Amino acid sequence: MAKEELPGVLILDIGGTHGVLENLAALLKKHFHLITMKEFLGNKEEMGKKIQSIFVFWCRPTIDRELLESLPNLKVVANSGVGVDHLDLKLISSFGVKVTNTPHAVADPTADVGMALMLASARRLVEGSVLNFPG
């Protein structure tokens, strides 16, 4: 499938402080034509027609009315995290756009970290750590 035939997905950037991780971007590129916010802002009219989805990573890009109005073919906002409290669901749905998230993506790691913290606390692991000895 040619790059132009793949559905366009708006992302903030690849790499950097708030961009999509490079290995995740490589996976996404197999199924989507990734369009960065910089590319989109450089040619809103042409790029806006190609974008069918927005991939929100680290709560970015910010989804507001101006952005939604500039994306006539937008179908879905895909949030990479569990919560959607950073998204204006009423505004997004008023444009006929669906919102998705990954509700169970971090359930096991969260439980693992919780257990590790309880065990470390019960065994006073941090107090006995070599790193905490003076000298």
Automatic annotation (TrEMBL):
Molecular function GO terms recorded: glyoxylate reductase (NADPH) activity; hydroxypyruvate reductase [NAD(P)H] activity; NAD binding
D-isomer specific 2-hydroxyacid dehydrogenase catalytic domain mapped to chain residues: 23-113
Pfam families from the UniProt entry: 2-Hacid_dh
Lineage summary: Eukaryota, Metazoa, Chordata, Craniata, Vertebrata
GO cellular component, one term: cytosol
Taxonomic superkingdom: Eukaryota
Organism: Mohoua ochrocephala
Record key words, sorted: Oxidoreductase
Name of the protein: HPPR reductase
